[in-house]
Design a protein that fits this description.
Strand order of the largest sheet: 9-8-7-6-5-2-1-10
Distance between the termini: 64 Å
Largest sheet: 8 strands, parallel
Number of domains: 2
Radius of gyration: 22 Å
Order of helices and strands: HEHHHEEEHEHEHEEHEHEHHEEEEHEEEE
Number of strands: 18
Shape: globular
CATH class of the largest domain: Alpha Beta
Structural class: alpha/beta
CATH topology of the largest domain: TIM Barrel
Helix content: 25-40%
CATH architecture of the largest domain: Alpha-Beta Barrel
Strand content: 15-25%
CATH superfamily of the largest domain: Aldolase class I
Bound molecules: alpha-D-galactopyranose
Length: 392
């Protein structure tokens, strides 16, 4: 009798508690654009709609970019019913209008809020309004929510984010859930069941040091990433002007190797040919979007010089050589060894002899002609080489 009672209690608990995230979202790392890195608080419906237009006309949409995400400062108050209110001067037609426009371009719409009482820029946060806000976002047609961590005082991260996850699930519209608590409480250990991506560090800025410092902190996190759950080393700075073209290539390549979300953070209306060729290098993007969903591991670490390996579907593999130093380096690369190398704990794939592959340079866009399987390779300061072993 007691056994049946316990079973019944367990069943009732299960039925009452949605306790899950939407399970078909972000099977590969989300790609899109976010307003923060370039525009900060200077957002408006005109800007956002122009970015949606530019996403299409520049070719970014065809290259795979999909989400247009408005970061902080779109919201200004709560009304007498606690409803979140958009800044009327900047978004005179309201957020649903913006969402509809974005959807009409075949793109998806992302919005921003914060788990605390106020956002990082002091706008109204979500605390105490989670279920109400989730319903509101669903009614706007939101497809992606970035949820920040400012002004959370003594809140517990796991329970705060889980609460918002349940609110989104209850509202019923599938929304990619992006956690932004800067890695403070090791979200990689628990957020796989809560959201689709989680920031692993503090904010990036548009400099080599910031970018490479964030990259260095991703080294032990590979095993936590997979389809539907990604480590997020923050948005891209490519095209914002603070790094050289070579450094931006490195930034973009590393983010692709890490299976990181690819959120462009530049002005899509004004992209130089170099910026376009980086953000739209489809061969490098394909590494990021590979269906196996594995984050690269650091295979060889000689301080300033590293080799990273990313296992890909169909027993293929990406190899990235990285020179972090300020000096040129010449390194001996043994493709035969790298073809057979185990690329991480969960491997077992991508370890065939080199004879099975051709080696493609993904920035030169051509196959290597290998006389020997070991080759001396020059790496300029702050640069990468990235190759794909493609099955013959
Ligand atoms: C935090 C986040 C940033 C950005 C700003 C907006 O700093 O980490 O990515 O969203 O807030 O205020």
């Amino acid at each position: 009798m007691k056994k049946y009672f316990l079973l019944l209690a367990a069943l009732l608990l299960f039925l009452n508690c949605p306790a899950q995230k939407f399970d078909q979202l972000a099977k590969t790392p989300p790609m899109g654009w976010n307003s923060w890195n370039k525009f900060n608080c200077d957002v408006s419906e005109i800007l956002i709609m122009q970015m949606a237009d530019a996403m299409v006309s520049s070719g970014m949409k065809d290259a795979g970019y999909e989400y247009i995400v408005i970061d902080d400062c779109w919201q200004i108050a709560r009304d007498e019913n606690g409803e979140i209110v958009a800044d009327k001067d900047r978004f005179p037609h309201g957020m649903k209008y913006v969402a509809d426009y974005i959807h009409s371009k075949g793109l998806k719409f992302g919005i921003y809020s914060c788990a605390g009482k106020a956002t990082c820029q002091g706008r109204p946060g979500g605390l105490g309004h989670e279920y109400q806000d989730a319903r509101t976002y669903a009614s706007y047609g939101v497809d992606y929510l970035k949820y920040d961590w400012c002004n959370t005082t003594t809140q517990d991260a796991k329970s705060s984010y889980t609460n918002m996850r349940d609110a989104l699930y209850t509202a019923g519209r599938p929304i990619v859930f992006s956690l932004c608590e800067w890695g403070n409480s090791k979200p990689w250990e628990w957020a796989g069941a809560v959201g689709n991506l989680w920031r692993t560090t503090g904010d990036i800025n548009d400099s080599w040091n910031s970018m490479i410092n964030i990259f260095n902190q991703q080294k032990d996190l590979s095993r936590y990433a997979g389809p539907g759950k990604w480590n997020d080393p923050d948005m891209l700075e490519v095209g914002n002007g603070g790094m050289t073209t070579e450094e931006y290539k490195t930034h973009f390549t590393l983010w692709c190797m890490l299976a990181s979300p690819l959120m462009a953070g530049n002005d899509l209306q004004n992209m130089s040919p170099e910026t376009k060729s980086i953000l739209m290098n489809k061969e490098v993007i394909t590494l990021n979007q590979d269906s196996l969903g594995r984050q690269a591991i650091c295979y060889r670490d000689n301080g300033d010089y590293q080799i990273w390996l990313k296992p890909l579907a169909n027993d293929e593999k990406a190899i990235c050589l990285l020179n972090k130093s300020d000096e040129k380096k010449t390194v001996l690369v043994d493709f035969s060894l790298l073809a057979k190398a185990n690329a991480g704990r969960r491997s077992g794939s991508a370890s065939l002899p080199i004879e099975n592959y051709r080696v493609r340079d993904l920035w030169e866009h051509k196959d290597l002609v290998l006389k020997e399987t070991s080759v001396n390779t020059d790496l300029a300061p702050h640069t990468v080489k990235v190759y794909r072993l493609i099955k013959k």
